[in-house]
Amino acid sequence: MNKLIKKIKETMDLLIDIIILLWNAAYGYFIAAIILNLLIGLIMPFQVMVWKKVIDNLAEIVIAGSDINIFISLLFYFCLQLLKQIIQNINQYVLTIYSELIDRSITEKMLKKVSSFELYRFDDSQFYNKIEMANKE
């Protein structure tokens, strides 16, 4: 039980560190990415409700032979689909720029840290390899 609590605490600490890193890299893009992903998630239930309305209208047309205009529901559904696609494209654009800003921020932090080391440490091949691996990741 103690190991589980310790593991949960380590995971939460790591998650907080990641969120701080993402926030410090470019908080505007961080907020934009969250908002866009929430919008994408919120559109889905509306699409389901509109699609249900389309199916109900079709059933009413078949059963009662009524003259319900199904095209309004279909138009609304396709407008939601288009809106979702536009938001997904904007989200992809924002995430691309945001990932580049995160990479730049991490590289700057690494370079700042590496510049504080003594020069003799770079003669050690293991130390140099660790820096190279961290830079590549």
Quick gist of this model?
The chain is an all-alpha fold. The protein is built from 4 helices and no strands.
The total of beta strands comes to 0
* Rounded Rg: 26 Å
Broad shape: elongated
Could you tell me the mean pLDDT? 86
Q: Helix tally?
A: 4
Structural class: mainly alpha
Q: Assess the beta-strand content as a share of residues.
A: under 5%
* Poorly predicted segments: none
SSE string: HHHH
Tell me the major beta sheet. Answer: none
Helical amount = over 70%
How far apart the termini lie comes to 34 Å
Can you describe this structure?
It is elongated and about 85 Å long. With 137 residues, it is an all-alpha fold. Helix 1 (2-25) crosses helix 3 and helix 2 packs antiparallel against helix 3 (71-115). 87% of the residues lie in helices and 0% in strands. The protein starts with a helix and ends with a helix.
